[in-house]
Amino acid sequence: MPLAGQLRLVRAEEADAEAIAALVNRAYGTYPHLFAGQRTTPSELLAEAGPGAQFIVIEGDGRLVASALIAKAERFVEPDMLGPAGTPRPAPGQPAPDHPWAGALYFGMAAVEPELMNRGHGRAMVAFAEKLARDEGYRAVALGTVREFGLVPYYERLGYRVVHELAHPAGHWDFLVPHVYVEMVKPL
What we know:
- With 188 residues, the chain is of the alpha+beta class.
- The chain has one domain: Aminopeptidase (3-Layer(aba) Sandwich), CATH 3.40.630.30.
- It has four helices and seven strands.
- It has helices spanning 17-28, 42-49, 121-135, 152-157, and strands at 6-11, 54-60, 63-72, 104-112, 140-146, 161-168, 179-187.
- α3 links the parallel β4 (104-112) and β5.
- It is globular and about 45 Å long.
- The relative contact order is 0.18.
């Protein structure tokens, strides 16, 4: 199925943070039984992205329809670097050389306009991130997800493997239920 727009890469400081944050919040809004509140704000989006980050964006019919953050994975080694607006984010450290995310490109905060989900946009962004990672000499692509979103099997079908899981109680990151944060990696 063809994508509903054109895919391109945008540096974080040039991205339309308001449009991306709104899209991310709409995508998270598809899980009302799991998640309360908003995932991010424009300023939180840019703070989480950090220096040197970029966004994969898909635009069609004059609007943003999908996006994902890519950056050096070392920035996100600590799970508290991820999470909804207002989540404290400690300064990232350098991981040990044998850490699964060391030398990897991080793919995260992926969002697709809800009415366009399950039409290949996510897969196209993942494939784009993997090609970019190979071209730029990264050894892997890393990502984090929440098991309750049901995306772990999706990423496993794309060649990602679980390298770490951490259970959290309801209330953590504005989740309504206990949840498991899952780190995944695909070696290139």
